[in-house]
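ARCHIVE CARD
Drawer: 12
Card no.: 0347
Subject: one protein chain, sequence and derived structure
Cross-reference: see card 0346
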Amino acid sequence: MILFNSSKTSMSKISHSHATIIKYFPLCFVAASEFRIVLLGKSEDKKTKLGNFIIRDRGFDVQKSNQRCVPICGEWRGKHVTVVKTPDLFSFPEQKVREEVRRCISLIFPGPNVLLLLVKPSEFKEKDKEKLKFILSLFGEDAFKHSMVIITHEEKTGSSVNWLLEKCGQRQFSLNNKDHGLLTEKIENIVQENKDTFLTCTEETRRPKSVLNLVLCGRRGAEKTSAVNAILGQRKFGGPEDSSECVKTQGEVCGRRVSLLELPALYGKPQEAVMEESFRCISLCDPEGIHAFILVLPVGALTDEDKGELETIQNTFSSKVTDFTLILFSVELDPTAPPVVDFIRQNRDIQELCQSCGGRSVVVSMKDKQQIPELLDQVDKMRLSDQKPHSYTTGMFAHGQMEKILQLEAEIKKLKNPHVVSCKYFIVFIFCSS
């Protein structure tokens, strides 16, 4: 896919595109990091202090959201490093801990290779020990091999802290120690000792969720709202037909919980607005991801605007989006009527579109809605396929944005403008929550 033609694209446009992608999608840097570090502990202040010490910058702000994971990126001697500051997981109920650990790993794709456990010795009791064991179990059986204890206060260690130090191979560092080189060396040793392996979600954290996340996309707001009503079996449901923001609605369909997002039309909007809404769409499906993109179209010839919308969606979410896309053709009456069937079979643009989406399509009557079970069956077949991931995740999103960054930087280098600076600076990313 060619995003830019260097012969026709000005340096200012490339630089603006580069900056806009970085602003809304800093996940691309997470995907490239050699050191992927997670901070776990109770104290927000101490985690902020340690994170800023590691990055050697005041990137973490103690005033920012303390209920969600926050990543920040930087460099050590030319190598990318990403640090994720977690909220106080010790105070969360178990299900919320599972969700946040899964989200943490998705933000630091493909998974962390170092866990730093912040402990105040006088306050680390038996109940904290048990909760930490549960938290680390969600990172897999090798979590302790990737862990180091960070002592936040110079106090006498009790039995629980001594147990933790033993489980971590006596790896420890004092937060009062200002030797950045020593901390860096200890972190690098952990990565080397584990032969560059990383931690991922255990089966318990990635077990199938009961909510099915579906994103309805396309040029026509009225068609998408009608599709929402048809799927949920309700009337006058959904946002304004020409809403400029994602609209999320939920309901029960065929005995299962379904979450529907109406993605506004993106074609023709400024790039920054396109990225902002795409970012919001991903956020609203976090951490499970998007199980299917449903492209809503009437039975008719594709217009230039339709084609532009499809291209914009693919450019924004990357070519991987077609692996998770099925087409919903909306009709008012009989979906099996010969004119409907013949048009879909004979129109070249429609056939090429269907083939690009793996042949996945369904014609749905907005009146009787009898095809909704078929629609969900197709989503399940796509979602449960062994040929690809079960959902479109933030990690996949990150790879798509990384490809854009690399392509844009290649264009910048070709133009050889000395005033354009490469993207080697620090970025704070707070993933929006619905």
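Annotation on reverse: The radius of gyration is 24 Å. The chain is about 40% helix and 20% strand.
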